[in-house]
Each structure stands twice: as C-alpha cells, then as structure tokens.
Amino acid sequence: MHPLSDDTWETIAQREMPDTPAEEAVAQLQSWNLHVFARRVVDDSTGQMGNPILPSDLLFLEPPLGTQS
After folding, report:
1. HEC string of 16-45?
2. Is 57 within a domain?
3. 36 near 55, Cβ under 8 Å?
4. Are 33 and 59 in contact (CB under 8 A)?
5. How many Cβ atoms from other residues are within 10 Å of residue 23's Cβ?
6. Domain enclosing residue 32, as ranges
7. What are the pLDDT digits (tens) for 19-51?
8. How far apart are CA 12 and CA 25, in angstroms?
9. Which residues are within 8 A (CB) of 54 and not within 5 positions of it... i.e. 6 or more apart?
10. Spatial contact of 61 and 5, defined as CB atoms under 8 Å apart
C-alpha cells in the first residue's frame, strides 16, 4: 500500500491491522518494511528524528511468503 501524506506507523497499524494490538502491529509493520523503518530523516525545524514514511513509499502489510512473524 502507499501511505497517506500524514501517516505514521501508528495510523497505518490502526487502519490496516485493527484486530492486532497497536504495539504489536507497529512492530510487525516496521519489521516487514525495514527499507522505510531504517531510513533516517531529521526534521530541519527541530533537529529531531522526523517521520520516515513518505507517500511514495510502498509498504508491505504482511510478512514475505515463506516466513512467519
């Protein structure tokens, strides 16, 4: 799926995995999407880590075939 412009791991987990506890859903999403989770983005206005999720990203909502989570 492609995220919405203001999506975070939490909003995606809530919307796409409503039957999974929030913390578990976020952890699963991050593990399936290391290409996004590992991206380091610094918010220029605060110097803090920013949201690494971009609307152009492709996020996986399930583990790769042949693996279990």
Report:
1. HCCCCCHHHHHHHHHHHCHHHHCCCCECCC
2. no
3. no
4. yes
5. 10
6. 20-50
7. 999 999 999 999 999 999 988 877 778 887 777
8. 9
9. 3, 36
10. no
